[in-house]
Amino acid sequence: MTDTRYLELPDGRRIAHRFTPGTGPTIVFLPGYMSDMSGSKATALFEMAQAAGRPCLLVDYSGCGESPGDFADGTLSRWRDEVLAVIAAAGLEQVVLVGSSMGGWLMLMVAEALAESGKVKGLVGIAAAPDFTEWGIAQMDKNMLADGETIWEDNPYGPEPTPTHPGFWADGQANLMLDREIAWDGPARLLHGQRDTDVPWDISVRLAERLRSADVQVMLIKDGDHRLSREPDIHLLLRTVAELVLARDPAA
């Protein structure tokens, strides 16, 4: 892995990221909720890109991983703008966005924001979770969030409970996507485990229906869980991303 770099935004936020140069579209990995660029999928993609001479960008949202800040201040819109700022600062001309869980929602938001630029050449979702502030939260908890309270849920991946802050929830509700057409016309590959207890696999099917593109494939892993971080899952991810990058690279 290369050293961590920091992009300072006008308001003082410092966004940690790692970049390896190369030829062809840049693989941009967007981690999930309370995750960061040190995870196994991000690391595997980065190492694959380095070995193949392909560019890859990893990002930590503010308040996550190596980016300073308060996680409670984070929202989808705020993190989308941070990703866009790092892409712009790096001068990336073509990108393939890879989004894991919540990162799959951000992937769609970034793709829409860059639609007119033509920069985005492909999407790869890993248990993509658009609209989880709607379908993933009970009505009683929504009422608490609407009243400005933080809710806490058991965390199957660590000892500390998982918070949902009212600002994040409200911003998510303002950016729902599964109730409309998503104006994306390029290739999209959606990987999802059918034993995912966090994001139902039918979310990827619904997303495929909402994407305007005809070049959309949903790949269901029958015994796969939410993380899809086992060795065969990682191999499927790497193969899927590599095929998409090569297919969109005229020099390949």
Automatic annotation (TrEMBL):
<dbReference type="InterPro" id="IPR000073">
    <property type="entry name" value="AB_hydrolase_1"/>
</dbReference>
<keyword id="KW-0378">Hydrolase</keyword>
<dbReference type="GO" id="GO:0102390">
    <property type="term" value="F:mycophenolic acid acyl-glucuronide esterase activity"/>
</dbReference>
<dbReference type="GO" id="GO:0008474">
    <property type="term" value="F:palmitoyl-(protein) hydrolase activity"/>
</dbReference>
<dbReference type="Pfam" id="PF12697">
    <property type="entry name" value="Abhydrolase_6"/>
</dbReference>
<protein>
    <recommendedName>
        <fullName>Palmitoyl-protein thioesterase ABHD10, mitochondrial</fullName>
        <ecNumber>3.1.1.93</ecNumber>
        <ecNumber>3.1.2.22</ecNumber>
    </recommendedName>
</protein>
<dbReference type="InterPro" id="IPR052382">
    <property type="entry name" value="ABHD10_acyl-thioesterase"/>
</dbReference>
<dbReference type="InterPro" id="IPR029058">
    <property type="entry name" value="AB_hydrolase_fold"/>
</dbReference>
<keyword id="KW-0809">Transit peptide</keyword>
<comment type="function">
    <text>Acts as an acyl-protein thioesterase that hydrolyzes fatty acids from acylated residues in proteins. Regulates the mitochondrial S-depalmitoylation of the nucleophilic active site residue of peroxiredoxin-5/PRDX5, a key antioxidant protein, therefore modulating mitochondrial antioxidant ability. Also catalyzes the deglucuronidation of mycophenolic acid acyl-glucuronide, an active metabolite of the immunosuppressant drug mycophenolate.</text>
</comment>
<feature type="domain" description="AB hydrolase-1">
    <location>
        <begin position="27"/>
        <end position="226"/>
    </location>
</feature>
<dbReference type="GO" id="GO:0004553">
    <property type="term" value="F:hydrolase activity, hydrolyzing O-glycosyl compounds"/>
</dbReference>
